[in-house]
Amino acid sequence: MSLEPIEPEAALELFLKDKEAELADASIKGHDYRLRHFVRWCHEQGIENLNTLTGRQLHEYRLWRRDDGDLNKVSEKTQMDSLRSFVRWLEAVDGVEQDLSEKVLSPTITADENSRDVMLDSEQAASVLSHLEKYEYAGPQHVALTLMWHTMMRVGGVHAMDVDDYNADEQYMKVRHRPDTDTPIKNKGDGERLVALSDDICELLDDWLENKRPDTTDDHGREPLLASREGRLQKTTLRMYVYRWTRPCAHGEECPHDRDPDDCEATVRDAASKCPSSVSPHAIRRGSITHSLNSDMPDRVVSDRANVSPKVIEQHYDRRTEQERMEQRRDYLDNL
Question: Where is the Core-binding (CB) domain positioned along the sequence (predicted)?
Answer without folding.
Answer: 6-91
